[in-house]
Structures are given as C-alpha cells and as structure tokens.
Amino acid sequence: MTRVSPRGALLLSAAAIALVSGQACAQSAAAPANAQDRDDKEIVVTATKRPEAVRDISGSVTAHTGEQLEKLGADSMADYLTRTPGVVFNPSTPGGGNVTIRGVSTTTGQESGQATTGIFINDVPLTDPAFSIGTPDIDTFDVDNVAVLRGPQGTLFGSSSLGGAVNYQAAKPDLDRIGARGQATLRDTRQGATGGAGKVMLNAPIVEGKLGVRGVFVYRRDAGYFDNLGTGRSDVGRTRTYSGRILATWRAGESTTFNYLYLEQRQDTDDVGYQLPGLGELRKSSSLPEPASYSTLIHQLRLDQDLSFATLTATATRHKKSFSYTSDMTEALSPALFGLAPVSNFGAGTSKGETFEIRLASAPGGSFEYLFGAMYDRTAMKQGQNIYAAGLADLLDVAGPGLGLPAGAGQQLAPGDLLVNAQFPATARELALFGEGSYRLGDQWKVTLGGRLFEQRLTNASDAYGTFVLLTQGSYTQTTSDTRRFSGFSPKASLTWTPGEDLMVYALASKGYRFGGSNLITFPGVPASYDSDSLWNYEIGTRADFLDRKLLLDLTGFYIDWSNIQLKRKAAGIDYADNAGDARIFGVEASVTLRPTRWLNLSTNLTYLDAKLSKTFDPDPSDPSDTIFPKGTRLPGAAKWQVSNTLSYDLADAALAPSFVLAHRYVSRSPSQLEGTTSQGGYSLFDARAGVNFGPFGATVFIENIGDKRGIATSAVVPPIQQYIVRPRTIGITLDVKL
C-alpha cells in the first residue's frame, strides 16, 4: 500500500464527505424525522465541573462515548486519542506515554517537571506536580465517556492542563435492574505473537432504586512483536493489563446521593518494545531484558446534595501511582566508564496523596448560572535509581591510586559494582479557589467570566551516593533540598452567540499554568531552579447542525502565546529543566459528521497546526558549544496535519443486525525532540471491523493496520535512539454477551 501524503489524506476526507453529503441531500426529504435518534442522544460530560451536553459547551471538547469506543474496538489511549482533533499520543512503555494537545510540549517523552496535559479519572487529578510517575491509560471497557478538553483548563481543573485535559468517566450503577456483560477477544499480530483479552461487567441493585453496585474486571494481554538480539528472545514487548473498578451509588434521599469509586490498574511489560535504527525492522538489542510496570489506585467518595437552587458537590480522594523499570545504559555510559559493560539501570517511583474539593453549582436554566468551589491537594513523590557497571569495583582497585583513592577502594566505593544510588523525594501542596459565572443577555447572547486563585508549594530533595557522585561532585555523598512557592490567578472569559438551536458561535480567552521547581544537580550551566510557565489561548469556534441534524460541523481556530517555557535538557546524562523563552502556536480544528440515513454515519476530523519558538533561545551565551534553539524551531510532536475518518454502516433493525466500520488515521511528520534530529509520524493507518448479533450474543471480526505500516509513533533519544513502532497488521475476533 502506497504512502498517503497530506494532500492525499485531505482529498480522501473531502471525497468521502462529498459522497455522503450528496446522499444526505438526496434523502433528507424522504427520511423520517426520527431517522437519527438512535445515534443522536446528547452526550453529557463534566468539562465545566457540572453535567452539560457537549454541544452546549463554549469550548473545544470531544467526547468519546462507551458505545463509540466499542464500535472502534478501542482499549487504550492509542486507539482513541489518535482520532481526536488536535491531540497526539506519543507511546512508549505502556503506562508511561505522553499526551500532547495543540502542540503544547517540549518533548514527546516525559517532562523533567510537570506534564503539559492533565489526566483525570472522574475529575481526580493524576498529573504529578514534580516529575512523572506515569500516564494512567485505563482500559475503556464499560466506560461512560472519555472527554478531551482542548485548550488550557487551568480555571476549573488547575495546574498542568496547559494544552488541555483528558477526563475519563466511569459508568455509574443502574439502581433499577440487574445487568451483566462479558467479552473475549483473540488477536494475532503479524511478525509477533498472539494476544487476547477477557472482560466482564456486573451491575446489581442491592436495594432497588436506592443502592447499587457496578463492578468491572479486565485482563488483557497485548502481544509483543519485537526481537531482542541481545538477549536472544523473540516477540518481546508483551504487556499484561489487570484492571478492576467498583462504583457504588447510594441514593440516601430524594436530594442526597453518595458515590464511592475504587479503581486499580496494573500494566506489566516483559521487555519494553522498541526498534533500534540500523538493526533491521522491529529489532532491538539490550544486554539484559528491560521490564517495566505501572500501576494506578484510586479511592474516591463523592456527595451530591440537591439544594433546589443549586447542587453541592464534595469529593475526597486518595490516589496512588507507582512504577518500576530496568533499562540498559551501556551505550550511553560505557564510553565514559572505560568500556565497562553492561551498565544496568534499575528505577522505581511512587506518587501518593489526597485531593479534596467542594463546589456549588446553580440550577440550570436561569439567566445567571454560577459555579464556585475550593480544592486542596497534597502529593508526596519519590523517584530513585540504582546504576551498576559490571567490573567497576575491580577497575577502581586498579586505577584508584591514580585518581587519588586509597588502595582497595573498589569494594568500599562501588559495592556490587554500584555506580550511583540516587533518590529524589518531593512534596507538593496546592490550594485553590475557583469559580465561573454566566449571564444570558436575552435569548441569543451569553457572557461567561471565570478564574482560579491558587497557591502552590513544592519541596524537592536529592540524596545520592556512589562513585559517580564522587567523581563529579568531589564527595561520595550529596544531599540537597529546596522549597519553592508560586501563586497567581488564572482567568477565563467567553462570549457565546446562539441565534437558534442549530448554530452556536463563541469566542474564548483562557490561561493555563503549571508548577515550577528546583534542579538538584550542580553542574556548570545548570540553573538552580526553573520558574512556572503559562500560556494564553485565544479561540473562535462554531457548532452548526444542518439538514435536520444529519450534518454536524464543529470548527475552531485558535492562537496560543506560550511564555517562559520549561525545557527538558540533560547534563552528564541527568535530566534537568530550564526556562527556554517563548512559543506561538496557531491552528484550525474541524469535525464533520454526516448521517444521511439511520444506518450510515461518516465522521471526519481534521487538524492544521503550526507550533514554533517565537524567538531564539540561547541558554548560555558564554558557551559556544551549547545548543542554540533558533526562532522558528518546531515544537516536538506538533504534527502539522492530522486527519481521521470513520465510516460506519449499522443495520440494527435487520436480521443479525450486521455492522461494518472502516477507519483511517493520518499524522504528518514532526520532530520528536526540540534538540535532536529524530522524527516521527508521516504515515496512514486503515482498520476495518464487521460484526453480527444473535440476540444478546455478538461476534466481531477485525483487521487493524491493514497496510501493515511500520510507522514511527515516537522516538526517544536515550541514547541509543529508540523508535516506538505502531502495531503491525493484526487480525482477530471479539465475542460479546450482554444480559
């Protein structure tokens, strides 16, 4: 299959739209008024911290419902974020990927400080304040919806949501009837192994209409498709996902509801799968396996109290994330260690804390609507690593006297060949008052003003010992600590014009921010700390419905002014952050949905993005060897073009209720790092699914990546350069039962 160019991808979308649009015009007069009712129910999300229909929100929001995700066969972020306008998902180790919205990022990997995209589960913030302990990628089985909020969400959602936020909403219990669902999938990957999944949901009303429980359990095995030449193992990269959640609802009275959520997920990867350039297709080489594990745990209690004039909502949450990994750092460090090999890195980290929030939202429908509240979050983090270089102790015994070390210093300074043991604890606290008010000026105009007053405190520490510390710092141990405080106000304003039920136009200005912090390494040229960065987002958007809601159009143009950017850099192989000047980003996002008949649906999403540094940044003018980032440098992962198309045909009323889905995704080429020559993207993927139903039973066959492309989803410079490749052609079958 030939490569699809940006122009080809656009023509493909335009041709499909024109074809189905013609059918829509021809059939609209004869179609019954309720032709699209089955697919046209309002999607309600909490993007504004209150239940609100997506198409009534004055902002850029895309909601993927559980039904839509099921039709696409989506399990994880890579399956649905890549179909969302303005969003790039940069995969790496499962559970440790990176989400970039509207190009707001300086790396396609993990930031040195706080990430630029907020990740939320039932409104619980899971973006770490100091350094990343992973990106929770919760399986989407039995999900209510996953809402992607584009543009900064600092007013209502707080720090880290510079580019936007992803909010995962679990399905609530049905208090009136028993329900169950089971799903089994078997899939085979070309040049890889066989994988599969088993998923089950049980809904049970304990007291009808009053108390109910909904439980979900998922086991998924994603097959590996890489060969590790160093260890001699084939089909590495296998990941096992164990995911479970329980959501209990107690309707204590006509106006009082309690919800409790327990959610836990763990992803274990046997040997991280990536491709090394020069070794051949889907091949890596490491001197030892590189396993990794990421986990997420949430306990949340929520109260919703109807006060007639408003709803009071209070939440109390405990959250915990953790990871562990092993990596081969031979290529990166062996040359500086006189050729010692292998060099092994063992790392682990945790992030745990409590989040409390209380808010009051007015009853909908009045000329003045408001929401205000307060939140408190305290998160304790710890990240550590142990690096070992085989033969280091013996080398120090021999070379120690020449370095001024006593005889026999090897076992004293490098027990077990330890090069360095480093621990990086951090404690963050955030307090905020937030609010938003909307006033309707007649039937057509609405003005909204909002803001968030916040105060943050972050304490970073470093406790390291080992030969590496001795040789670079002059002492065997080093302990440092620093506390930084930040405060400010994040405003938001919008003006909405709604001349009728089929058209809405809005203008929006909003600000986002994130934590600053300290660099706890003392190399020349490395700043002691880095400041918070912030950005302003200006956008104009419209939502329009045509042909009796058979044609839906969302169109948004935006401009982002990003200042005092936090840039991830390295010194002696250690990450640190520096504030790296300014950037300007502008783009256009469009979503078109065509429904000419009740059986046929075509959706197209298109994004054009131009994200670049707006002025030259020279970190150290006195050092001619330092990297200079010239004006016009493109931001990493900021693909200029993104296109996704989905054609679905669903004969729900026919015998066996056959359905068919054909999906296409295109992402143009973009740099993977701000400093470096690696790139990613520049490929198209096609998927197809066909299914039938036998009463409560269903069967779906599918083929993913029909053209068997080897697209580079992201590249990491460790070194060596690690290329994460999209999954090769995969065929499979899913069996489903709903009771």
UniProtKB/TrEMBL annotation:
TonB-dependent receptor plug domain: residues covered: 54-165
Superkingdom field: Bacteria
Transferase recorded as keyword: no
Membrane topology: Multi-pass membrane protein
InterPro entries per record: Beta-barrel_TonB, Beta-barrel_TonB_sf, Plug_dom, TonB-dep_rcpt-like
Signal peptide per UniProt: 1-26
Keywords (A to Z) from UniProt: Cell outer membrane, Ion transport, Iron, Iron transport, Membrane, Receptor, Signal, TonB box, Transmembrane, Transmembrane beta strand, Transport
Compartment(s) where it occurs, according to its Swiss-Prot or TrEMBL record: Cell outer membrane
Start and end residues of each TonB-dependent receptor-like beta-barrel domain: 267-695
GO cellular component terms given for this protein: cell outer membrane
Protein name (Swiss-Prot/TrEMBL): TonB-dependent receptor
Species the sequence originates in: Sphingomonas gei
